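Hi P.,

Sorry for the delay on this. The queue was packed all week, but I finally got your sequence through. Input first:
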Amino acid sequence: MQTVSKFLQATLVGLILCTGASLVHAAPQHGLAMHGDLKYPAEFTHFSYANPDAPKGGRFRTSTLGTFDSFNPFLVRGNPAAGLGNIWDTLMTPSADEPFSQYGLLAESVEVAPDQSEATFTLRENARWHDGKPVTPEDVIWSFETLRDKGQPFYRAYYAGVTAVEKTGPRQVRFQFAHGGNPELPLIIGQLVVLPKHWWSERDFSKTTLEPPLGSGPYRIASFEPGRSITYERADNYWGANLPVNRGRHNADTLQIDYYRDGTVALEAFKAGEYDFRPENMSKAWATSYDIPAVDDGRLIRREVPNGRPSGMQAFVMNTRRPIFKDARVRQALTEVFDFPWSNQALFYGQYTRTRSYFDNSDLAATGLPEGAELRVLEAVRDQIPPEVFTDVYDPPTTDGSGNIRANLKTAHTLLGEAGWKINPDTRRLTHTADGKTLDFEILLVAPEFERVVLPFKKNLERLGINVTVRTVDAAQYRRRMDSFDFDMIVGTFGQSLSPGNEQRDYWGSAFAQQNGSRNLIGIEDPAVDTLIEGIVRAPTRADLVARVRALDRVLQWNHWVIPQWHIAHDRIAYWNKFGMPDTVPLMGVQTDTWWIDPQRNKALGNAKQ
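Then the structure:
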């Protein structure tokens, strides 16, 4: 299931026979857990990582890079503003201290057929839009159909198993599925962002807009400067404020997000107190940029907070729609010359771990050689996958960290030769023996800070006779080129959850390789991968899911579609000392929506700054 929220399926029972057909019904449930029991019972009052007595008030300021020109985040076109998820509620919402559970938000209950062939959601009677009108089954149906038909390709992949949706009562909506046995689908529908049909009926959903949209969530847009800043204010009389899933959350009166074009400028602005909270993703900045008085005297706090999230895969991503990357030997050769040990010491201050799995930092990562249930899964596609899957444990090439990669260059040269690439003695460039073309490609970046990582890699590639261009573009151009797959190589990230599912189709599925805007950036069209994905989607138990994800992991690794980079197993955060926060940090890591502005700390901080 998609990132941020994964859920486990609860056991639902009950069967009523009707005229000429067997219609399945089940007891209403307050939440769903895909492969086990819910942590929180029906009578729970709040999540254990939230403080139900947290005071409300104050302003929470953050930042992001780039720009925005739209308040419609559901389309391929446009650059949507950050934070728009605060405007709309979903049918259900996840807990951050369970791997795969979610609880009713707009929906007060859900009924799932025992064979998982359908799910019926009952809306809360008091659920309201910000204009006071009730949230209705018609809103749910319109939202589902509009996102599926007009939204990003991701939604078509995510909702592919849904065959019908219908109103079955004044507050009930039933979703029917193409096949039973997919425990994730009811949870996927639970993630549905519900939009107001009556508001959108007078507007064109397929177009970008800077008109503040109508929502039902805890916040609404208060003010904005296109491309520069957006401020959200707490919605007056938010209907869901006292629900157990919300108690102790959404505590700030206003959320302000400022935009910066340059990461260095954004960091300096933070240290000057222009905003309050910063997740630090630059190792150099974490190691060298916080040696300032505000940190020494406790006004500015730096913390490393462990989390239990899968790290996903950050990597140099090769676009296999380009002819030069179609040969796996070429892709493997390029992997040989990325010197991570040297980069980690020289550039990253030794802060990172080399990524080897698409699911590192979790039990989903493939380790050792396949055996048991995992081996049985792979045997079914043995003749379609690299033989190394069965005989070797995948580990990215390594070096001694000295910068001398002679052995790696030799291996890469051999692989390139096997693929038909030879050095032209006159030009010292790699040239293909079949057509005489040289091996040239561009690495496309959106963050200038990444150039210091890419340029040493470029230098090593040039030692092989490969001509590499590094190009950094603005966020809008970068997104357009990503959506149309107009790139050779990028630095890409494939985020993962503790319960992978339907979203894997969008990442690696053949059906999405040629769909603009999909997340199949690599361009994978592989029947074996498609088979493995469908096995994951239909995994009946947690043990089956783990075995099937590990099998997919191995096949992705041994096809050398990316050059793995690095990860850390904790959140690096810095914040001005104005916040209160719960003592408990949940499995998913830092949850800033449970923080609050502490009046005494905020006053002391203001006095200290003055």
